[in-house]
Amino acid sequence: MNSFFQDNLQEITEPISKEKTLSIYELIVSGGLGGQIIIGILFVLLIVALYIYFERFFAIKAASKEDKNFMNQIKEAILKGKLEAARDLCKSKNTPTARLIDKGISRIGKPLDDINTAIETAGKLEIYQLEKNVSVLATISGAAPMIGFLGTVIGMILAIHEIANAGGQIDIKMLSDGLYTAMTTTVAGLIVGIIAYVTYNHLVVRTNKVVYQMEAKSVEFLDLLNEPV
């Protein structure tokens, strides 16, 4: 009797022990050549997105460093007529804000509108430098899911092709390559797109913070020039 139950228990547990598991590598390999090419493209886009993010993140972080005594030192130097000392101080800081103030100091003696125009032009150049390559992240965030969906369409075409060639006898193993291609590329495209989208928005927020600092210091500098002597 015990032998009977043991035999039945073994028959029940055997299918469970033979349950198939797949690693990420096996999923990619099982997707066929089309799926592997698309996964490869998405992997390259992911590397590009991460490189741009970290390169811009550290550049923007360095640009956002602010010395609270900077404007007080500039004001003191200008009021004493030490314009060269003020410009040297700006050059020593090497930040977008300092470069704007340096541009303004170099125009002292000219009409205030000319000084303001020079600062605005320099500010546009600084913003351009801060946003360099950031738009690529936005492109990747939109393109990656579309590339993934392209893999989905290719996978479904492969699956339908196998059904057409099966002569009405559908075997799930015949469809596996197409289905793996469809699912893995979709997931990969969404993952890359989400990462690129999040990193893009994070950089935009950080860049805006630096832009606000530049605007505030520029206004403070122009107000200093407007003060009565």
Automatic annotation (TrEMBL):
The keyword Repeat does not apply. The chain crosses the membrane at residues 33-54, 134-160, 180-200. It is found in: Cell membrane; Membrane. One of its GO terms (biological process) is protein import. It holds the Pfam family MotA_ExbB. The keyword Nucleus does not apply. It is a multi-pass membrane protein. It comes from the Bacteria. Residues 93-215 form the MotA/TolQ/ExbB proton channel domain. InterPro entries: ExbB/TolQ_transport, MotA_ExbB_proton_chnl. GO terms for cellular component: plasma membrane. Keywords: Cell membrane, Membrane, Protein transport, Transmembrane, Transmembrane helix, Transport. PANTHER family: PROTEIN TOLQ (PTHR30625), TOLQ-RELATED (PTHR30625:SF17). Belongs to the exbB/tolQ family. This is Biopolymer transporter ExbB. It comes from Polaribacter gangjinensis.
